[in-house]
């Protein structure tokens, strides 16, 4: 029900304009002190400032924000430049896969990758083994074992916390803080260990977005979140869940995979985010670490899974990422890594802002975003599977809109 409008008749008729068509001025319906200069686009409520707008109806403002996000996501379209970029990534992946068909066999077929049993036992026991402890032949054997992946098979694979059953029971307080649950008795020790694998939430309540910024959050934040979540999942899987073993290296990897954190980019579509992330994953820099299209698509599945878990899981993820970056900042030497330290501090602030934004979103936002990412992933798979990847060639290194022009050869 609309409340009656209070008006004041002023004597300054000369100020009439298209923005102020008459000398009647309406009083703000919230504070009843200032003149109402704005109208709520949903309920036509008259207000005078951002503060009054945010307080006039929580349900109205949240619904308006949610509709803006959903409208932005529905506008995602495939443009020719981004599609071409994706085809380039898929093509390069298949070419590299064909080139490597005999690579590992040539290393291991002749002599195998056998290390002395004593050395193997020391490795399995977790003891330190230096290359100086090995003879020349043993070093060659170690390098063959490393190249063939034999040593990696000895490492127990890490189970991502977001795939566990306990991830679906994450519950955070109103301000995003971790709810403390006491675990009693020996029979619950195993369950407590599982729960502890989930990153701890914020130790103090998160700040309201209205206090962080006087402007409305960008509708591109959901898209940028996908970029950040992908880079986190990529890094943790590469480091087998133990980023603490090399926090600086982990943070540097996050920056290299995330265009939002590493390049201060502002991607406008989910397709562009996935194109950049998959290109980095399939690059030669990560080829020897298990990178590739199959790995990249599994990371997109990780993103989808985390979105399905909702705000609690995503806040825990971002909190863990913020800790990772914070520890890395402390490890950077101020003399030689000034630029890196500056970039890490900016990334830390972005992650914190994103965490505060995530904490205020409703489940409808995550359902819409999960559906959009799933659709984009399916389009990538279709490009890869439909009649194979088209054969393409570059033409004269000519670039248009920062993209290499591609000719499709039928």
Automatic annotation (TrEMBL):
A single Pfam family, by name? zf-HIT
**UniProt cross-references to InterPro entries, sorted A to Z:** Znf_HIT, ZNHIT2
Q: Which parts of the sequence are annotated with region: Disordered? A: 1-21
Which PROSITE patterns did the record assign? ZF_HIT
Superkingdom of this entry's organism? Answer: Eukaryota
Q: Which residue stretches does the UniProt record annotate as biased composition, category Low complexity?
A: 11-21
Residue ranges annotated for the HIT-type domain, each copy included: 28-60
Q: Which GO terms describe its molecular function?
A: zinc ion binding
UniProt keyword Nucleus, yes or no = no
The UniProt keywords, alphabetically, are:
Metal-binding, Zinc, Zinc-finger
- Zinc-finger is among the record's keywords: yes
PANTHER family in alphabetical order = ZINC FINGER HIT DOMAIN CONTAINING PROTEIN 2 PROTEIN FON -RELATED, ZINC FINGER HIT DOMAIN-CONTAINING PROTEIN 2
User: What name goes with this protein?
Assistant: HIT-type domain-containing protein
Origin species, per record, is Capsella rubella
């Amino acid at each position: 029900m609309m409340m009656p409008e209070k008006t004041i008749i002023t004597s300054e008729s000369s100020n009439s304009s298209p923005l102020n068509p008459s000398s009647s001025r309406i009083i703000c319906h919230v504070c009843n002190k200032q003149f109402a200069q704005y109208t709520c686009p949903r309920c036509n409520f008259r207000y005078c400032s951002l503060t009054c707008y945010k307080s006039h109806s929580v349900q109205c403002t949240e619904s308006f924000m949610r509709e803006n996000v959903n409208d932005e996501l529905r506008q995602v379209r495939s443009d020719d430049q981004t599609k071409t970029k994706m085809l380039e990534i898929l093509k390069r992946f298949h070419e590299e896969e064909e080139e490597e068909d005999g690579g590992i066999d040539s290393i291991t077929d002749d002599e195998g990758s056998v290390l002395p049993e004593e050395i193997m036992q020391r490795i399995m026991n977790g003891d330190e083994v230096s290359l100086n402890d090995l003879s020349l032949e043993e070093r060659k054997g170690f390098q063959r074992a490393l190249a063939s992946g034999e040593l990696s098979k000895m490492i127990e694979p890490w189970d991502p916390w977001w795939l566990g059953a306990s991830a679906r029971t994450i519950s955070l307080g109103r301000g995003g803080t971790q709810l403390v649950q006491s675990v009693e008795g020996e029979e619950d020790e195993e369950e407590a260990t599982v729960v502890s694998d989930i990153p701890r939430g914020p130790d103090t309540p998160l700040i309201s977005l209205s206090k962080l910024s006087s402007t409305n959050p960008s509708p591109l934040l959901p898209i940028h979140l996908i970029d950040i979540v992908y880079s986190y999942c990529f890094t943790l899987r590469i480091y087998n869940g133990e980023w603490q073993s090399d926090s600086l290296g982990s943070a540097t990897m996050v920056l290299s995979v995330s265009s939002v954190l590493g390049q201060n980019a502002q991607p406008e579509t989910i397709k562009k985010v996935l194109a950049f992330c998959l290109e980095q994953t399939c690059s030669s820099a990560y080829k020897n670490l298990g990178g590739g299209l199959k790995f990249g698509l599994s990371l997109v599945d990780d993103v989808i899974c985390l979105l399905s878990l909702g705000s609690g899981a995503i806040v825990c993820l971002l909190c863990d990422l913020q800790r990772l970056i914070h520890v890395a900042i402390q490890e950077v030497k101020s003399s030689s890594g000034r630029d890196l330290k500056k970039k890490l501090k900016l990334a830390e602030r972005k992650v914190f802002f994103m965490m505060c934004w995530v904490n205020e979103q409703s489940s409808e936002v995550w359902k819409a975003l999960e559906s959009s990412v799933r659709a984009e992933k399916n389009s990538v798979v279709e490009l890869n599977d439909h009649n194979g990847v088209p054969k393409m060639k570059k033409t004269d290194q000519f670039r248009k809109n920062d993209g290499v022009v591609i000719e499709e050869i039928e």
